[in-house]
Amino acid sequence: MKPDRIRILDRATVMRCLAGIDPVSVVESAVCEHTLGRSDLPAEGYMAWENSAGAYSRAVAMLGCVQQGRSMAYGIKLINASVTNPALGIERAGGFTVLFDPETARPVTLVEAGHVSALRTAAYTMSSLRTLGPTDFDAVSIIGCGTIAAMHAKLLVQYFRAVRELHLYDIDPARTAALRRDLATHCPDVKVTEHPDVESCVKASQVVVTLTVSSEPYIPPGWFAPGTFIAHVSLDDVMPAVFLEAEAIYVDDIDLVRDNPRRVLGSVMQAGDVVADTESSSGHGHALARRYGEVLLGREEAIRPQDGLVVSNPFGMAILDVAVCQEVAVRAEVAGLGTVVDLMGDPERADR
């Protein structure tokens, strides 16, 4: 495209382009490139406020670049959210990702971010479950039943054919019921069980995925059966003791997780109770945090749950969004999809 023209891809167009993309493969590649040092993740911009209903609202802006094939993909993700949005009939979070031209630095593609964000989050969980989870399971417990939970459920059925039962819990029973109805349509061969309380849902299977907006830990280690894999996606659900007693903890980036005290693992690491496996104090009575990318690269052997717990606790890197959006953008350009806007407009109209 000519300079100062940007291709805008709405959700429907994004979904059309994603039809030929394996999101798990794209996410794994980006995690490996990051582990090899072929990426950049500047500090995120974060702003929080209360809306007119007194509800938590926030804006997060995340720049990032990652090696993709023979070139780097550059971009920024802006994802905003308010906890009262579902009551308004809209998704809790929404925004866009903008990709940059590596040569001119101009923004060239704007991609609706909500769907891609949910997809890459679920894709990371599928990857970690495939690599670090139990070798044999047919049921999964999902805590939190919003948009990201729906994406997780659909990818679980797609990537793990042995899964025949999903256990659901949400603090709002209406969301649980809505997800169950959605799954009855899209995953008719899977039994879906709604739980009246979070404890029974956690105890129902050996794979537990947390997808809530909780800011206070509430799940103790005693609720998990021996040999459980925990995808701690929403980051503030399990109590600190879960990490201290875990057989293994895997993160996507140790520094990002440790430097964020808003998240329970970050505060536990800052207290020194969990340390990186590369630190000199590792192995001396401390729980260890390991980089998942090392396993994907084959440089470390995966630790799967045996008699204890294995926890995957990703930070959620914006480079995963950039990587997926880059794949989408390439397909959109080839197919001529999206709306191209000239940011300079028509000079003749400007003179009128």
Automatic annotation (TrEMBL):
Alphabetized InterPro entries for the sequence: NAD(P)-bd_dom_sf, ODC_Mu_crystall, ODC_N
Pfam families per the UniProt record, alphabetical: OCD_Mu_crystall (PF02423)
One annotated Gene Ontology cellular component of this protein: cytoplasm
Name of the protein described by the UniProt record: Ornithine cyclodeaminase
